Amino acid sequence: MVLSPVIGKLLHKRVVLASASPRRREILSHAGLRFEVVPSRFKEKLDKASFPTPYAYAIETAKQKALEVASRMHQKDLRAPDVVIGADTIVTVGGLILEKPVDKQDAYRMLSRLNGKEHSVFTGVAIVHCCTKDGQLDTEVSEFHEETTVKFSELSEELLWEYIDSGEPMDKAGGYGIQALGGMLVEYVHGDFLNVVGFPLNHFCKKLVELYYPPRRKDVQRVKHDSIPPVDTFENLSDAEQGSSDPAQGNEGGGHWRAEAGGDRGQVPAGSQGADSNGTVGVTAQFPAGLLELIDGFKASKALFTACKLKVFDVLKDEAPLKAMDIAGKIDASVCGTERLLDVCVALGLLEKADRGYCNTDLADLHLASDGEYSLHGLAMHSNDHAWNLFTDLELAVREGANAAFGRKAEHPVQSKQTKLQFMRAMHGLTNLTARQVATAFDLSRFTSACDLGGCTGALARALTQQYPRLKVTVVDLPEVIEHVPCFQPEGRQTEQISFVPGDFFKDNLPEAELYILSRILHEWPDDKVHELLSRVSGSCRPGGGILVAETVLEENRAARGSLPASLNLLVRTQGRERTLPEYRSLLEQHGFWDVRLAHAGDRLDVVLGTRAAPP
Ligand SMILES: Cc1cn([C@@H]2O[C@H](COP(=O)(O)OP(=O)(O)OP(=O)(O)O)[C@@H](O)[C@H]2O)c(=O)[nH]c1=O
């Protein structure tokens, strides 16, 4: 569980903590961040005197730690992680900077200085976004610091030595650990406790908000030139590989000390306009991280599809954890390629990686392995093998309109032999996920018979019969669909309440029923075909009978809820379209269905129920 949604912004990135500190690792993993730990080899020996403030020193050290790891990882496999986090904690007292003691005497000297006094603990943090361009590592650094004031009690020599002999001071800045025995030395703390322990989590989250939640256009600040801290130019922000970038820094943290130092090393994002030569007004724009995620979205989809196709999630459902090499053997793929794909799946939150190997996440077990009631493996495969190709024609479909594009490359999935089973699998998984909600969106207990037109594998029929034990459901679908229905019957759960009838609902007589169901059917067809179908349903339905339409109903401004690409899907794939409630109401009313009501059936689906009026 992730409390801070901003931490979630890092879940899809490969994040590395460039620190050997067990405390930092613990703080960040408790916050829900997923990361690898690669301790930095940077030697902490920058010339303290050359920094204008102690925290400038801590920030620079943090930055060098992170950059060293980024460049080492880049050199190792020519690919740096997306984000490297470095941190450095120091204690300052009387103008002196205290780091980790080198021995017991050093610890004693430090603790004696702190004894009975107030001191400051600074942690400098660097968040380094990396990208690889033409084989070169490109980095962009965001940095900040946090200060906490700590007061020690008056401590006896005996107590100090007892504490030193405990061994606790040795790997800790200032020679104490506030989170353990050292807590007994402390009278009060002002500020962020975790900052003393080694990582200012609260400030880190705020920084992520700054980085990943750019202000909306109307919030773009118009600021006076002299209120912008001195800035650098980071030239490669447009590289989508990078994932994110630093916005213009506020007048705080790393940006602030630089301003004080009169330096000019801060950063400004691409697209920002600096002040004009008169230094009057400029516009700063946050880096469009969300947009870049969108640009990269297809790569994530393709990685997921590929892992599904290679049955990675099936392999790991059967046996886990497994190392990349073992998985590669089982899926008959190269080790290096498999490892990369697996790591991407980890970054996408589909797999987990531990020392002993890779495992499925619960999400992957439930939805991406090919078996299981709620598997979306079929949908992923259908998207990969079919929808993907059709979407390459989106431009053509937009230029020429659905009718023109349809039929050129697009092929109705149910009519294609090759894709028929795959399409059934896709629909089966999707319907299973929503069937209960559709069945219960309205109280249908007054009906004793229903006919599910285009009911495919009977997934909705099953949910209906479970919900309404009196109800008998006839599923009508094309013969070539019905032929494969047995593959989708859960063992031991066949029910006499459901029967399957092969037929074409545009041509064949419709079975008699009190309730006719059209689930995810009408959006596939243009208005003339919808009228044709509704007129056939209306002709078969007795007065007092019903029609139940399950579709994503558009808002009145035609905005789709949930699945935005769906309407484009229709454009490239069929001649149909999604409709608003007034449109459905009008269609149904024209065919004698009244009292048309809407209910939501989850995030992406709505249910419309109409009652057949007596003919005039
Ligand atoms: C004041 C205080 C510090 N620390 C630890 O002191 C180390 C600072 O050293 P660093 O150089 O910033 O980090 P490191 O441990 O050398 O790791 P690295 O990041 O690899 O340089 C970090 O561990 C901190 O937790 C505590 O655990 N408790 C405290 O109360």
Please provide a written account of the structure:
With 616 residues, the chain is α/β, with parallel strands linked by helices. The chain has 3 domains: 3-212, Alpha-Beta Complex (Maf protein); 297-379, Winged helix-like DNA-binding domain superfamily/Winged helix DNA-binding domain (Arc Repressor Mutant, subunit A); 417-612, Vaccinia Virus protein VP39 (Rossmann fold, 3-Layer(aba) Sandwich), CATH 3.40.50. The chain is 38% helix and 19% strand. Strands 1, 2, 3, 4, 5, 6 and 7 form a 7-stranded mixed β-sheet that branches. The protein has a 7-stranded mixed β-sheet with strand order 16-15-14-17-18-20-19, with helices on both faces. The two termini are 59 Å apart. The site of 5-Methyluridine triphosphate has 26 residues, from strand 3 and helix 6.
List keywords for this structure.
3 domains; single chain; Maf protein; hydrolase; COMT_dimerisation; 22 helices; alpha/beta; Arc Repressor Mutant, subunit A; methyltransferase; seven-stranded mixed sheet; 616 residues; binds 5-Methyluridine triphosphate
- Count the helices. How many? 22
What is the helix content? 25-40%
Radius of gyration: 31 Å
**How many distinct folded domains?**
3
CATH architecture of the largest domain: Alpha-Beta Complex
Q: Please describe the biggest sheet, giving its number of strands, its sense, and whether it closes into a barrel.
A: 7 strands, mixed
CATH C-level class of the largest domain: Alpha Beta
Ligand species? 5-Methyluridine triphosphate
End-to-end separation:
59 Å
Shape: elongated
Pairing-aware structural class of the strands and helices?
alpha/beta
Q: What percent strand?
A: 15-25%
Mean pLDDT: 83
What are the segments in which pLDDT stays under 50 over at least 5 consecutive residues?
Answer: 216-283
Biased composition (Polar residues): 235-248
GO biological process, one term: methylation
Protein name: N-acetylserotonin O-methyltransferase-like protein
Domain O-methyltransferase dimerisation: 292-370
